[in-house]
Specification:
alpha/beta, Rossmann fold, 8-stranded mixed β-sheet, 10 helices, 8 strands, globular
């Protein structure tokens, strides 16, 4: 082979190497190690000065490419407990558990955590909801989507994230025992209350609602979560319009979604399920959620 031939051969080899590299899946910047683990995530695309400790669990039979479940804690900000609630289900069904902790210090009160910090930030990348998407990019190893579960305040987080961050990559969402809701009502003359209790005056509208109604969402209610004197139950005027307790409010939420889907001509992708004998209990609701979603083979 002459000199020109060797040069062309070298160029073709280099091009092939580059093309092959481009086809390889990008490895996770922070992969999930086996067993239980935690690390501090500083969101460079969001609010880097508000760190989030992330608790993870990877079953023995899983590598870093197994399906991902994000787990959102309640108002106690006890992410490690919620990670542990899902350990047996992860072993049984083969998925990675990622439980971010939005501490009171960095993300104070409901406004910063379950309400997304939306009121104080026009930039969606700064919202607490965007931490999930940024964390997914940090930890995924070829996964295209994830499932997400939230209980209590975490359930408020999850359903509002679906509405307010429509580009999220959740393939299924489990909303368990939320204290109150952003009702899927976008018409000012029909809504009993404004944002954050409905879509009226929210930074999203009918188009985002249409998309959310068609997604796979499980509204999960503990049948015994009926206390009206729970000190942590929101009693604001907007919340009380949704019902006297968490079961009534969850039924109002699902009923409003069903009604909105009918009006908008959307096939509702949501399901409503009850957990017999269970109240406002994160561990039991987590077990029921695992049976509801993975137990059906969905």
């Amino acid at each position: 082979m002459n000199l020109d031939g060797r040069r062309w051969a070298g160029r073709l080899l280099a091009a092939a190497v580059l093309a092959g590299g481009a086809m390889l899946p990008a490895q996770a910047a922070t992969p999930v190690p086996s067993g239980k683990w935690s690390f501090v995530f500083k969101d460079k695309r969001g609010q880097e000065d508000r760190p989030v400790r992330v608790y993870t669990y990877r079953p023995r039979q899983c590598d870093s490419t197994c399906p991902i479940l994000f787990v959102l804690h309640g108002m106690k900000r006890n992410a490690s407990d919620y990670r542990d609630y899902w350990e047996l289900a992860a072993d049984r069904h083969g998925f990675l558990v990622i439980a971010p902790e939005f501490s009171d210090r960095a993300w104070p009160k409901a406004a910063s955590y379950n309400l997304g910090d939306v009121a104080d930030n026009a930039n969606r990348e700064k919202w607490s909801y965007s931490v999930i998407e940024h964390l997914f990019d940090e930890m995924r190893d070829g996964q295209k989507d994830y499932r997400i579960f939230g209980h209590s305040a975490g359930a408020q987080f999850v359903h509002r994230m679906l509405f307010l961050l429509p580009g999220n990559r959740a393939s299924a969402a489990i909303v368990a025992n939320a204290g109150w809701y952003m009702l899927p009502e976008w018409r000012a003359d029909k809504a009993k209350a404004r944002f954050p209790h409905s879509f009226v005056e929210a930074p999203v509208g009918e188009a985002e609602l249409r998309a959310a109604l068609g997604r796979k969402v499980y509204v999960l209610l503990g049948e015994a979560d009926t206390k009206t004197d729970d000190p942590n139950l929101d009693r604001s005027e907007g919340a009380m319009m949704q019902g006297a307790n968490r079961v009534e409010r969850g039924e109002s939420f699902f009923g409003a979604a069903s009604g909105a889907a009918a009006v908008l001509g959307v096939k509702l992708g949501w399901e409503l399920s009850y957990v017999p004998g269970v109240g406002h209990e994160g561990a039991k609701m987590s077990r029921a959620a695992a049976d509801t979603v993975w137990g059906k083979g969905k």
